[in-house]
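If your schedule permits, I should be very grateful for your opinion on a structural question. I have a record of one protein: its chain in single-letter code and its fold written as discrete structure tokens. Kindly check, if you would, that the fold set down in the tokens agrees with what the sequence suggests. I remain grateful for any guidance, and I place the record below:

***
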Amino acid sequence: MTGTERKVFQKYYPPDYDPTKLPRAKGTKSRQFVQRVMTPFNMQCNTCHEYIYKGKKFNMKRETVEGEDYLGLRLFRFYFKCPNCLAEITFKTDLENCDYQNEHGATRLFEAIKLYQDAEKAKEAKEEEDKKDPMKMLEKRTMMSRAEMEAMGNLEDLQEISRNKEAVDVERFLEATKPELSLAEQVKLQEEEDEALISIYGKTADGKIMKRIDDTKEEDDATTPSTSRHVSRPFNFR
């Protein structure tokens, strides 16, 4: 049959055509189909230790897994060869976990999402088991209430410590914990205080400290005329 004859919409059937006499193709249940598939997870070949990353495309052989199913659904097995050493690697579908299961020829590498899913599944299974046992549920509630009481006690202790810290005067605490000054430091501190007093009050010839009088203020007071206390009032003719 040529390409032109294959693409026509109407084909000629002779009058003596009988489809029941056509030879049937021999097919078995374990028939394999060649299919273009991407690797579903990261793996490492056990023969040459070649890394095969997720999403790499291969021409794989697909077959139906005999004797296994999940809720009446068929499972499929895939065969492909390592690109480096041509060793055969197989994996199959895992409908229960919505994933793929590695069989042989390679080792599946670590995946964080897979570890998280396994932990969540184990947690759910444990919760279901605890719900069926009333004694475990009672023990769990008792432990939760005890942990809550301990947490409240720790919180009250922290609040008490915080209130005590707020009541402490920081300046007094620093003064009390301040180390004693040496003799030279005390003399220097006394000299600084004396200089501050001299700059404010003044110093006489014999070394005594006296208060300065502002001359400009006295001159201003002398030149300013005093206001009269007598105020003229209007004469009342009534």
Observations:
- The longest strand covers residues 57-70.
- Residues 33-110 form one domain.
